[in-house]
Amino acid sequence: MRRRLSITLAGLGLFTALFAAAASAVAPAAPSATRVVAEPVAFTTWNEKQPPAAVTYDRHLVPVGAGAVVLAAGGPRTVVGLVVQGLLPGHRYGAHVHQKACGATGTAAGPHYQNVPDPVQPSVDPAYANPHNEVWLDFSTDADGNGQAFAVVDWNFRAGGARAVVLHEHGTSGMPGEAGSAGPRAACITVPFS
What we know:
Layout: H1 2-26, E1 35-42, E2 54-56, E3 67-73, E4 78-85, E5 92-98, E6 139-140, E7 147-153, E8 164-168, E9 185-190
Antiparallel strand pairs: 1-3, 2-9, 3-4, 4-7, 5-6, 5-8, 8-9
Family: Belongs to the Cu-Zn superoxide dismutase family.
GO biological process, one term: superoxide metabolic process
InterPro entries: SOD-like_Cu/Zn_dom_sf (IPR036423), SOD_Cu_Zn_dom (IPR001424)
């Protein structure tokens, strides 16, 4: 497990540089706000006595010991980045920022964080469940199970309103009646966005 995580850290340099460049381009007033908001973590199973920062609910899609890191920058816009390693190779994942911290089950993280909340929950209305009103970080893994994504939105998180990144079984749908849906929750990373 430590070896996998150290490889993630070694491979993080280029992504971090690209992330910082993107953050500076979209949020030039606050380039110093670029920071790692979640230390590199390894996915594990839930432990009630010592809740992990990253938990897997589907060991096939997100094996125990797989690694991840989340980056975020604020300013006039928000940039969020996700790097993963050791997941199922050649697979398309959905990933979104959620309202609550991770828990024993995938539902603990609550619904997607929305800048303008949909009065109807769960939200499947494309007027609310879309990549401009939510943070969507969908990615595909390579032959080694590694992947990355970043998203830019024209708003900042409300204080205490965004607490996790959830990885879902498949890519996110934008279709009416299922907008924002990406299948069962495969894993969760607790992140203190605000």
